[in-house]
Amino acid sequence: MKKYSISDIEGLIGIKAHTIRVWEIRYNLVPPKRTLTNIRYYDEDDLKALLNIVTLNENGYKISKIAKMSRTQISDLVVQLKTNWNNDSVQILSLSNATVDYDEVAFSEILAGCITEMGLIKTMDLVLFPFMKKVGMLWQTGAIDPSHEHFASNLIRDRIIVEIDRVEKPHKDRPKRFLLFLPEAEMHEVGLLFTRYLLKSCGQDTLYLGSGIPYADLKKIVASYQPDYSFIVLTSLNLGKDINKIVGKVMDNLNVPLLVAGSLISEFDILVKDQLTPLKNVCDMVDFLEDL
Fold it and tell me: What is the dihedral of CA 122, 98, 187, 236, to 10 degrees?
């Protein structure tokens, strides 16, 4: 079993280490184990228990009441809450639990339930984008393994592709042409696929190239496809903090308006440029498309 420090647990469940220690001291809730050298740690069962406790606590159950329940009782109550697909905090915690367990069935059921109840746009905005941002940060800090991030992102990716296939593209007399791609070193396609879904739903035309497109190829692609707009998504922390440098390199090889979305856009300041439109969230993306 994987061992977690209290700082790992803090990141995974979103509760401060001080609060976790108070729960332990006051209520004996999920006391940590100790190594032979007396170092405190939590195992995967402890993590699941704490995730369930946080789920109940965020949904109106007092810690003093939770402390009197057995783990089975807690788990049963969480199962009941999971059917409330509009409760985004519950679904994010449930996805986290399924990711730690590599539980594809549970993960897929959560995705399907949220999308059926709320639709893909609202699910992406309230559940999946916040969840993926959290997973990315935990991966960078080592609280979870890279395989956990790949497990979650690939299942989300596959589901969005299913939703794209289900969309009946409405007729549009003069659709705009969008070139969708990720620049070099950016490999996370989920946001770009979601953009493809939005564009298809609006009746726009797209050329989807996916990840890792060399800067040197862009001029030839633009000359051939002649898009009205180009669109990139920047989410990978491996790209560094100089987002404007990356955007600049892309624009140097394009002569069409560039739309830029992704979590890094909301975290760093983007320099104002002609033919550049930063989209900081799902609402910005939807509003832009509605205004076309």
Answer: 80
* Both structure tokens of 57: 């606590």
Taking the model in full, what pTM does it have? Answer: 0.83
How high is the mean pLDDT in each 10-residue block of the chain (292 residues)? 85 88 93 90 90 89 93 88 82 88 94 94 94 82 83 96 95 94 89 95 95 91 96 79 85 92 82 88 87 82
Q: Are residues 185 and 256 in the same domain?
A: yes
In a domain, 59, yes or no: no
Q: Crossing angle, helix 6-13 and helix 17-27, to 10 degrees?
A: 100
Q: In this structure, what token pair is assigned to residue 221?
A: 């692609």
Question: What's the domain range around 162?
Answer: 83-166
Considering the domain architecture, whether residues 190 and 153 belong to the same structural domain is answered as no
CA-CA-CA-CA torsion for 188, 193, 199, 201, nearest 10 degrees? Answer: -150
For residues 65-95, b (16+ Cβ closer than 10 Å) or e, as one string?
ebeebeeeebeebbeebbeebebbbbbbbbb
Dist CA 123 CA 209 (whole Å): 24
